[in-house]
Design brief:
The complex is a heterodimer.
Chain A: H1 12-16, H2 29-39, H3 41-58, H4 60-67, E1 79-82, E2 85-88, E3 90-92, E4 101-103, H5 124-160, H6 162-177, H7 180-192, E5 196-198, E6 201-203, H8 209-218, H9 220-235, H10 238-245, H11 250-286, H12 298-306, H13 314-341
Chain B: H1 2-28, H2 35-40, H3 46-55, H4 62-75, H5 89-124, H6 129-143, H7 146-160, H8 182-216, H9 219-226, H10 231-243, H11 245-262, H12 264-270, H13 275-285, H14 288-316, H15 318-321
Helix pairs in contact in B: 1-14, 5-6, 5-8, 5-11, 6-8, 7-8, 7-12, 8-10, 9-10, 11-14, 12-13, 13-14
The chains are: A mainly alpha, B mainly alpha.
C-alpha cells in the first residue's frame, strides 16, 4: 500500500503566490490548510458522506426501537406485515425440493426488513446500522491507538538516537517485513481462543478490544517510521537546538517544540488509517477472527450473507456497499488532506 | 556491488530470525494459556497434551522450545496436525503452493498490463473526462474489499448471469491443476484473477499517472519535445521508462505479500485450495501447527522476495550501488 510522503507545512507567503491574489499576512499554515481543504469540493462532499454514515449508525437504536425489534436475537418464528397481511419472516422454500426455509427478501413495507432478513430471521437493515457502529468504533479506536503507539515509538527512537534508536528501528524492521494479515491472524488465533488478563483487567475472548488492539498494533511500523524520520530532522533543527542550548527540560521540548510539528504528519495518516482499519476489520471478521457473535460488524454481516448469496444477495451486498462508500470517502478526504498540508503537492 | 548484496542478505537473515522469534512468542509464550493444549486442538485427551508438552519441550526453557520448533519446521519437517490426526503439515503447505502461485501470477500479469493502460491513458488525457472517470473508477477499485468483490463476481457469474452467453463458460468454484487441464486451469482462474487484480490496477494506475505527470515537468521531456519527437514516442520511450522504476519495488513487495498470505481472502471466496485457504481452514479448526507453518513459511517467502527485489534494484539503478 502506498503511504504518503511526509507533509511539510507550507509557509503562508509561498502559498499565497499560487492562490487568488489576497494578502497572506497574518494567515498561519493551519488556516491556509483549512482554507485549501474547504475550497476542495470533493473533500467536502466526502466529509458530508462520512458524517451522514456516522449519524445513521448512531441512529441504530432509534431504528430498532421504532420497529420494536432486537436485531441480536434469533427470530426464526417471527412474522412481519406486508400489504396488510401477516407473513412469516422465514418463508418455506419455493426452490429445489421445497424443504427448509428462506428468509424474506427486501420489502418496502413499514414493518421493517427493508433489506430482508438473514438466516436467523433478523432484520438486516437494523444489523447493518448496529454493525456500522462497531466497524466505525473499531476503526476509530484502532487508528487512535496506532497513532499514539507510533508517536511514542517514533519520538523515543528519533529523539534519543543511539542504541535506543537502533534497537527500536530493528524491531520496526521486523514488524514491517511481517505480512500484516499473517500477523493479525497469529495474534487473533491466540487471543480469541482464551480470555486473558493484563493486571487488573480481564479481556474476554469476544471483546471488541481484541480487534481494536490487533488492528492498532499491526499498522504501527508503517506510521512510526515516517514519524521517526521527521523527529530526526526536527532534532537537528535550529529551534530545537536552541531550546536544548537554553537548558530546557526534554519533556518540555518534546511537548512544545517537537510534537506540534509532528501534527501534520499525524493528521495525514488519520483518514488513511481509518480506511485501512475498516478494510482490515471487515476482512478479519469475514475470516471469523474479528468481531465475534452476537456482536455484528460490516464484515460479519458479509460473512452471514455468504450462505444466502444466491438466494438473498442483499444480506452480503449491503454491508459491502457501506464499506465501499465509507472507505471511498476516506480515501478522497485523505488525498485532499495531504494536498492541503503538503506544499509540494500544491498546484498538481 | 558484492558488499551491497552481502549486507542485504545479512539484513534478510536478521529479519527472518526476528519474525521467527516473534511468531514463537505469540504462539507459545502468551501469558495465561497452555501452548500444549492449544496445539492439541479442541477436546484433546490429557495424554495427548502431555505427549505434546514433552515433544515440543514445553517443560523446558524458552530457548530450547524455540530451537525445537525451528528444528521441526525446517530440519526434520515432521510437524504434524492433531486436528487431522497424523497429517504432516509441511508437505501439505508445499502442496498448496501451485494454486496460490497460479492465482497471484495471473493476477500480476493482469494488473501490470491494466495499470500501464490506465496510468498512460490518464496521464496522456490529463484533466479530461477520461482522466477523471478513470481516477474515480480506480478509487472505487481501491475502496472495495476484495472478498466482497469476489462475492459480487460469484453472484453475477455463478448465479444471476450464469445462463447467459457472458458467463456460461465459467466453471464451478475450485482450482483445477495446470497439469490436469490447461483450459480448465485457465477458465477456473479468470474470474479470481480479475477480482484480485482490481485493487492493484487501482493503486498502480494512480501511482503511474502521478509519476508520469511529474516526469512531464522535467527538462529531458522538454528536450525530447524540442527535438520534434512524436507525443507517443515521448510518452513510451522517455516518460514511461523513468516512471517505471518505483513500479519495480512496489511490484516486488506486493507480489511477495500476496503469495505470502494477502491472497488468502481471494482464495477463500473462490474456493481455491492454496496456502491461504489452508490457513483459513486451520483457523476454523484451530489447527495450530498448520497456522504456525503457513505463517512462518509465508513470511519467510515475503522477506526473501523483498531482498531479491532490492538486489535487482541495485542492478537496474546505478544510483543505489554507491
Amino acid at each position: 500500500m502506498s503511504l504518503p510522503s511526509e507533509p511539510v507545512l507550507a509557509p503562508a507567503a509561498e502559498v499565497a503566490g499560487s492562490g487568488p491574489s489576497r494578502p497572506a499576512e497574518g494567515r498561519g499554515p493551519w488556516r491556509t490548510a483549512v482554507r485549501r481543504l474547504r475550497r476542495n469540493r470533493s473533500a467536502m462532499v466526502s466529509l458530508a458522506v462520512l458524517l451522514a454514515v456516522a449519524a445513521l449508525t448512531l441512529l441504530a437504536p432509534a431504528y430498532a426501537g421504532w420497529l420494536g425489534i432486537d436485531p441480536f436475537r434469533s427470530n426464526l418464528a417471527g412474522t412481519t406485515v406486508i400489504d396488510g397481511q401477516s407473513v412469516p419472516v422465514m418463508e418455506p422454500s419455493t426452490t429445489g425440493l421445497g424443504l427448509g426455509v428462506t428468509p424474506i427478501g427486501p420489502t418496502w413495507d413499514l414493518g421493517g426488513y427493508l433489506l430482508g432478513a438473514d438466516n436467523q430471521g433478523r432484520d438486516v437493515a437494523a444489523r447493518l446500522l448496529y454493525g456500522g457502529r462497531n466497524s466505525l468504533l473499531i476503526a476509530g479506536s484502532a487508528t487512535a491507538l496506532c497513532l499514539v503507539l507510533a508517536t511514542l515509538v517514533g519520538l523515543v527512537a528519533g529523539y534519543m538516537g543511539g542504541i535506543v534508536d537502533m534497537v527500536l528501528s530493528r524491531i520496526l524492521d521486523v514488524l514491517w517485513a511481517f505480512p500484516v494479515y499473517l500477523l493479525a491472524i497469529s495474534l487473533s488465533i491466540v487471543l480469541l481462543t482464551s480470555a486473558f488478563t493484563i493486571g487488573p483487567v480481564t479481556i474476554t475472548a469476544g471483546s471488541l478490544l481484541l480487534p481494536i488492539g490487533i488492528i492498532g498494533v499491526i499498522y504501527v511500523p508503517y506510521v512510526a517510521r515516517p514519524i521517526r524520520a521527521r523527529v530526526l530532522t526536527l532534532r537537528q533543527s535550529e529551534f530545537v537546538l536552541a531550546a536544548i542550548g537554553l537548558g530546557l527540560p526534554t519533556g518540555r521540548i518534546l511537548r512544545k517544540d517537537v510534537l506540534p510539528n509532528l501534527l501534520p504528519t499525524l493528521i495525514v495518516f488519520v483518514p488513511i488509517l481509518l480506511a485501512l482499519a475498516i478494510t482490515t476489520e471487515s476482512a478479519l471478521s469475514y475470516l471469523s477472527i474479528g468481531v465475534q457473535p452476537p456482536d455484528a460488524s460490516w464484515g460479519t454481516i458479509i460473512q452471514d450473507g455468504q450462505t444466502l448469496l444466491y438466494s438473498r444477495p442483499w444480506v452480503a451486498l449491503a454491508p459491502g456497499l457501506a464499506i465501499v462508500v465509507t472507505v471511498l470517502a476516506l480515501n478522497v478526504l485523505g488525498d485532499a488532506v495531504r494536498d492541503a498540508l503538503d506544499a509540494r503537492g500544491h498546484g498538481r | 556491488m558484492l558488499a551491497t548484496i552481502a549486507a542485504r542478505l545479512g539484513q534478510m537473515a536478521f529479519v527472518m530470525f526476528g519474525i521467527s522469534v516473534l511468531v514463537f512468542l505469540i504462539f507459545f509464550a502468551t501469558p495465561g494459556s497452555d501452548p500444549a493444549a492449544r496445539i492439541a486442538g479442541r477436546n484433546a485427551s490429557p495424554e495427548t497434551v502431555e505427549q505434546i508438552r514433552h515433544d515440543f519441550g514445553f517443560d523446558r526453557a524458552l530457548p530450547v522450545q524455540y530451537a525445537v520448533m525451528m528444528k521441526r519446521l525446517f530440519v526434520t519437517r515432521d510437524l504434524t496436525s492433531f486436528v487431522n490426526r497424523g497429517q504432516k503439515v509441511i508437505p501439505e503447505v508445499l502442496d498448496a503452493i501451485p494454486a496460490t502461485l497460479s492465482l497471484v501470477g495471473g493476477a500480476a500479469v493482469l494488473w501490470v498490463l491494466g495499470s500501464l493502460a490506465v496510468g498512460v491513458a490518464a496521464a496522456a488525457l490529463r484533466d479530461t473526462v477520461v482522466d477523471r472517470g478513470l481516477m474515480i473508477l480506480t478509487l472505487i477499485g481501491i475502496s472495495a474489499p476484495v472478498f466482497w468483490l469476489g462475492e459480487v463476481m460469484n453472484l453475477l457469474s455463478q448465479s444471476r448471469y450464469h445462463d447467459t452467453w457472458l458467463f456460461s463458460w465459467v466453471p464451478g468454484l475450485g482450482y483445477v491443476p495446470l497439469s490436469e487441464s490447461v483450459g480448465g486451469w485457465f477458465k477456473a482462474l479468470v474470474i479470481p484473477w480479475i477480482t484480485l487484480a482490481v485493487l492493484y490496477i487501482g493503486i498502480y494506475g494512480r501511482v503511474l499517472r502521478a509519476n508520469l505527470i511529474e516526469a512531464y515537468s522535467e527538462d529531458y521531456i522538454r528536450t525530447a519535445r524540442a527535438k520534434g519527437l512524436s507525443p507517443a514516442r515521448i510518452m513510451l520511450r522517455h516518460a514511461l521508462r523513468t516512471s517505471l522504476l518505483p513500479f519495480v519495488t512496489m511490484f516486488g513487495l506486493d507480489f511477495g505479500a500476496l503469495v505470502g498470505g494477502a491472497a488468502l481472502l481471494t482464495e477463500v471466496v473462490f474456493g481455491l485450495n492454496g496456502v491461504g485457504r489452508l490457513t483459513f481452514h486451520a483457523l476454523q479448526n484451530l489447527d495450530l501447527p498448520v497456522i504456525l507453518a503457513t505463517v512462518i513459511y509465508a513470511s519467510f517467502f515475503v522477506v526473501a522476495a523483498n531482498a531479491v527485489v532490492d538486489m535487482l534494484y541495485a542492478v537496474i539503478d546505478p544510483r543505489v550501488r554507491a
